[in-house]
Known about the structure:
The complex is a heterotrimer.
Chain A: H1 6-23, H2 29-46, H3 50-72, H4 74-82, H5 85-91, H6 96-125, H7 133-157, H8 165-191, H9 197-226
Helix pairs in contact in A: 1-6, 2-3, 2-6, 3-6, 3-7, 3-8, 6-7, 6-9, 7-8, 7-9, 8-9
Chain B: H1 3-11, H2 14-46, H3 60-87, H4 90-122, H5 130-151, H6 155-188, H7 202-234, H8 239-245
Helix pairs in contact in B: 2-7, 3-4, 3-6, 3-7, 4-5, 4-6, 4-7, 5-6
Chain C: H1 4-49
Amino acid sequence: MSAPSLLAAAKAQARRDLRLVWRRRGDAAQPLLFALMVVALFPLALGSDPQQLAKIAPGVLWVAVLLAGLLTLDSLYRGDLEDGSLEQMLLAPVPLAWLLAVRVAVHWATTALPLVLVAPLLAEFLFLPGELLPVLMVSLALGTPLLSLLGAVVAALTVGIRRSGMLLALLALPLFLPVLVFGAGSVMAAAQGLPWAGALLLLAAGLVLALVLAPLAAAAAIRIALT
Amino acid sequence: MNPVLLWFHQLGSPPTFDRFAARWTPWGFGLGLLGMAIGIYGALFMVPADYQQGDSFRILYIHVPAAWMSLFVYGLMAVYAAIALIWHIKLCEILAMACAPIGALFTAVTLATGSIWGKPMWGTWWDWDPRLTSELVLLFLYLGVIGLNAAIEDRRAAARAAGFLAIVGVVLLPVIRYSVEWWNSLHQGATIKLFGESTMDASMAWPLWVMVFATKFWFIGSLLQRARADNLERESGKDWARAAAGVPR
Amino acid sequence: MSYLEYVIGAYAVFAAYLAWDFLVPRLRLARTRRNIVQRARREATRNTGVVE
């Protein structure tokens, strides 16, 4: 019996992952609420002066989305590890990297994409100038998949470790830095009237590279962590 | 068989490595200390004071070698890790993990001396200068490797996972460095040459080179010592380890 | 302005880090040797205690 085609395997994996997320669809709201809370922390800590908040809005929004994404990384493999399906994926006739790519895509679509869609609402809370919103949305649309892909590699390394949440965050944050710098930086540049497209193009280039390399690296990392 | 290759393979045997490390560690430390004595004497007493910065620039003679070592050790750690992952050589796993704390120490020295140098220069203990910021991120990368190695119980699996992280880090290090420099240019306008060491007269440069070589020798001594300790601990149950520890037969 | 304290401070920090780098592995090596000897002693008594 020949191995299933890549497309068939991808569809099956996606269908399974989406079904699992649907069963716990209440959990999908948690990253949104977390990001909202983080956004609310800043006016509460710094004062509600609209001009001051507008100045820090791009950075705060990016940090809120980044931290929310960081916290969801733990759930990327944990369910599969605990019920043994991760090992099944290892043994599947389809390349592990392909299955992981689909896994990360579903994870991004169910945890990060809602955040990106809700970003305009969060931006209002921080009085972000309207003309910066398109740049912010593009930076988030390019940056959040990149964060998911980078996070998938680091999460794969810690997959066997118990209570690895904090360690995972510490390992992933230095690798997230360039994404944060270019993502938030593009919006800050636009706010100052400086050229902002270059940073976004760099993010796009990074995303293309990560789409190819990150699943391969994550697959290698899973093999290292599980054997 | 090629004698170099033969020697390399023999070195992979734990008892052989123990003897090798025991023999060469004192040389590494000794030559390192001697070099540092010469370099520091030159840096403190023989080099004239800088026209702009007075005597505080003498900190450069520690700060710059430490910074170069912090980068060099990270690269070496990634190379050892890659060899260990590709060819499953246990000794390279041990060497890679032994590099991490030494590199972290040099990075900490770079940050501390940079901060101490900065106080008379800028008036503050810290500045988000792109180089110091990149060093800080490098420290986090080192601590991540050390932390991951410590978090996994099986020593070989831990070294492989942490080694993989080191490789991912080394690939992303230029990206991180570039992003920090871009960020700095965005927020501070023109980049200021804060440490101004680009043009340095030869009469002032020689202690720097002495220190660069001295720190390399120290690194070799420290690497061998740490690798030896790790090697012995991993092989604690073996007969050769007992003999080496002095268990009476 | 006297930079003397800063220069001394920086070199002292360097010396402290070198001392740390030198001592920590030596202590670990000594501890490992102690553990090996103690473990060998424990296993020796355990074997002689077994009555076949």
